[in-house]
Write a structure and sequence with these properties.
The chain is 43% helix and 19% strand. The protein is of the alpha/beta class and 734 residues long. The structure holds GDP-alpha-D-glucose.
């Protein structure tokens, strides 16, 4: 591989191989698990590098670290060694004791431990540093799974233009569950560092977008979220398998031999098979119960069927897994003891990982595949089972809670908690006509063949390539360092300057309570410097009431516009109305708005001299949007014959006299003279009225990248302050 070529960097917790050291010898074994098998089939075809943990702690690898790294590098695997302490706290801890159980709805197993969270941050940072070291900004980085949900943001901070994808292999839970996580904001922010967020099914995408909206208040548009001035796209990509491999391997000799061996040990019994990691989400105990009920209900099938359960050891250091292992051992023993006869064992139970060719032999030897997880992001076993049985009448019993069910609706679909239903489905599967099975399977096999692992990965990477995090329009309008320099130059050359500044969201950030946005020291200093310059006329063009502006900013040589243009106060004069206005309409509008306040906990009513404002910044965002819509409709109807404007902004509705706006108010200053330099900065729709009336040579800047009449945009309040600060400084070449 040419190191200067663009690479695709895959990042996952485990590399697809694990290291085993015995004394001086270093061996590698293939790691089992959905992610490893899925990506393995596409890896190698791309110019790629796979970054992950090689399955051995830093301490255990000891002096062998270098040798392991070098050996794996030959296969384009880049090893990141994790310390034993972090493996406990990060992997066994935060990943498998917090994120995993929460995301698969097993809240009874969730543990919240801030030390484990700190380790999660630490290991994400460790991977970030390593990736930055070995990659270039042109590479595409594809981060996988719940172990690295902070990584996209960490990378983005260092490399704003890097292409970053994130795929979650487990479900994204309903927002009500996700909200339980103490670190929910950091995790959402972390994931939104990516350009493209992939999930297995549309349900998970919906849950993800819902969680984003509830926690950040940001709405999506057709799956695109505008976050921190970038577009992040969320979409579903149902992971496929290497279909050809699973469909052709059964014909191979070692597999055929293995099938014969299996059958030779039986006396013609039908085989029911299940293959999973030993995990509480996989529904193994419920499946055993269903099998037991089936044997009880239908004695004629005793000695005619047998159940082969392959349970691959998984997360064996986690207490809940150890407990599950004991329970499964016990239940298998009970069922075998109760129903077994001298010549018949109802369950063969294998607690180990088996070689690939034996797995395929089992898939092919089986008559029924029972895949009944309580929750599963996708479940590849179901797909592999079907692929291995092309032209062969094997029935798939599939849980409706596996992501795979969305593509495999022709299977016998069951509710994994419905023991009776599952017992009945075993009977139905045994009695289904061969023709029906082949017909239904063929439909599913065709689908799996088309959208296989390669298509899945290619689809994701192509979409990632197409995401335009910043639209061409935004690029054109961004206040780049070059334009900033031109602005500073124009400012310094001017003898008369007019500076029109909105307050909230422009000079200070938003707060839940409108009164908490008092100017801080930094802002006071900047305003002091700007207003002390005799060439400057500075006006605060705000929606706030007169009293607040006087109280907070009255000591500066400022001009004021309050209540979105209702009140004017030129410097050194007193407040006056822009024109005679009426406020008697308030008596008919106020009761309606108060009614909505009563029905919307957290909403508040602000009363200004000539306007009424409904704020719902503290209200849950979905609820807030619903109520805002309803209130808008009622207000528009109520005010149809009054000379009023009903304006909807970001979580506010303001009712005010028609024809009064900031644009009209600033005319007072704009028309005073021919200004050499005019600058207007604002962050919302009320400021658009100002941008619209500026003369051509005026500089207009909107905070945040949205559709606007402003010529330029800056991302946040800090950029505004730094710009204003540099206006009052000396001209530099920044
Ligand atoms: C996670 C999500 C999602 C299993 N036992 C043996 C063995 N395997 C292989 C199977 C299959 C893989 O492991 C298991 O994949 P699953 O998808 O069924 O489940 P998870 O490991 O929980 O995977 C899951 C997946 O990620 C992909 O996104 O579908 O929802 O939980 O490929 O063949 N392979 C061998 N011997 C075994 O004993 N050789």
């Amino acid at each position: 591989m040419n190191s200067t070529e663009k690479k695709i960097i895959l990042v996952s917790n485990r590399l697809p191989v694990s290291v085993v050291t015995r004394g001086k010898s270093i061996d590698f074994t293939q790691s089992a698990g959905g992610l490893a098998t899925g990506l393995d089939s596409i890896y190698g075809e791309q110019n790629s590098l796979w970054v992950g943990w090689p399955g051995i702690s830093r301490e255990k690898a000891g002096k062998n670290q270098r040798a392991i790294r070098e050996k794996l590098a030959g296969n384009r695997f880049h090893s990141v060694f994790i310390s034993q302490k972090d493996l406990d706290l990060f992997y066994n801890g935060f990943c498998n004791n917090t994120l995993w159980p929460l995301f698969v709805y097993f809240t009874q197993h969730v543990k919240y431990d801030s030390r484990q969270w700190e380790a999660y941050v630490r290991v994400n940072q460790q991977f970030c540093d390593e990736i930055l070291r070995i990659s270039s900004p042109e590479d595409t980085i594809w981060v996988h799974d719940y172990h690295f949900m902070l990584l996209p943001r960490m990378l983005r901070e260092k490399r704003p233009d890097q292409r970053i994808g994130f795929f979650l292999h487990i479900p994204w839970p309903a927002s009500e569950i996700y909200r339980e996580l103490p670190w929910r904001d950091a995790i959402i922010d972390g994931v939104l560092g990516a350009d493209l967020v992939g999930l297995h099914t549309n349900d998970y995408v919906t849950h993800f977008l819902h969680s984003v909206r509830r926690l950040t208040g940001i709405e999506h548009y057709l799956g695109t979220i505008r976050y921190k001035n970038r577009d992040v796209k969320a979409d579903s990509f149902p992971m496929g398998i290497d279909y050809q491999k699973f469909a052709t391997t059964p014909a191979e000799k070692p597999v055929q031999r293995e099938i014969k061996k299996i059958k030779a040990q039986l006396s013609g019994e039908k085989i029911i098979l299940s293959v999973d990691r030993l995990d509480y989400t996989k529904g193994i105990l419920e499946r055993l119960e269903a099998y037991e009920l089936f044997l009880k209900r239908y004695p004629k099938y005793r000695e005619k069927v047998m159940f082969i359960i392959v349970a691959v050891p998984s997360r064996t250091k986690v207490e809940s897994y150890q407990q599950l292992k004991r329970q499964v051992d016990e239940r298998v023993g009970e069922i075998n003891g109760r129903f077994g006869t001298l010549g018949w064992v109802p369950i063969w139970y294998l607690y180990k990982s088996i070689p690939f060719h034996r797995l395929i032999a089992l898939y092919r030897a089986a008559d029924i595949g029972m895949v009944t997880p309580i929750r599963d992001g996708m479940n590849l076993v179901a797909k592999e089972f079907l692929a291995a049985n092309e032209g062969h009448p094997a029935v798939l019993i599939l849980s409706e809670r596996a992501g795979a069910e969305r593509e495999l609706g022709e299977a016998l679909v069951v509710n994994p908690n419905d023991i009776q239903g599952m017992a009945e489905s075993i009977k139905s599967a045994l009695e289904l006509p061969r023709k029906t099975i082949l017909r239904e399977n063929a439909v599913m096999q065709e689908r799996l063949k088309r959208y296989d692992a390669r298509r899945w990965a290619a689809d994701f990477l192509e979409r990632l390539d197409k995401v335009e995090p910043i639209s061409p329009r935004s690029v054109r309008r961004a206040l780049t360092p070059k334009i900033r320099t031109q602005l500073l130059k124009a400012y310094h050359q001017a003898k008369t300057r007019l500076i029109l500044l909105d307050y909230d969201g422009t000079l200070t950030g938003f707060h839940d309570k409108p009164e908490a946005a008092k100017p801080g020291k930094a802002l006071q200093k900047i305003l002091g410097k700007l207003t002390d310059d005799p060439k400057n006329t500075v006006a605060i063009v705000s929606g706030r009431d007169r009293r607040t502006l006087d109280e907070w900013l009255g000591d500066f040589n400022l001009n004021f516009i309050a209540e979105h243009g209702v009140w004017l106060k030129p410097q050194g004069e007193s407040w006056r109305l822009i024109e005679p206005l009426r406020s008697d309409w308030k008596t008919s509008v106020r009761p309606l708005m108060e009614h909505y306040i009563d029905r919307t906990p957290g909403a508040i009513l602000e009363e200004k001299d000539y306007s009424l404002v409904w704020h719902c910044r503290k209200v849950d965002s979905e609820f807030a949007s619903r109520r805002t819509l309803e209130l808008m409709e009622d207000l528009v109807q109520l005010t149809a014959h009054l000379s009023l404007n009903v304006l909807q902004g970001h979580r506010v509705i303001e009712v005010k006299n028609a024809n009064v706006d900031k644009g009209r108010a600033v005319a007072q200053w704009l028309n005073q003279r021919d200004w050499d330099f005019i600058l207007s900065i604002g962050d919302d729709w009320t400021d658009e009225d100002v941008f619209r009336v500026l003369p051509d040579h005026g500089w207009s800047i909107r905070v945040g990248d949205t559709d606007s009449h402003a010529k330029y945009w800056v991302p946040d309040v800090n950029r505004v302050l730094s710009l204003l600060d540099s206006l009052s400084g000396r001209m530099t070449n920044e």
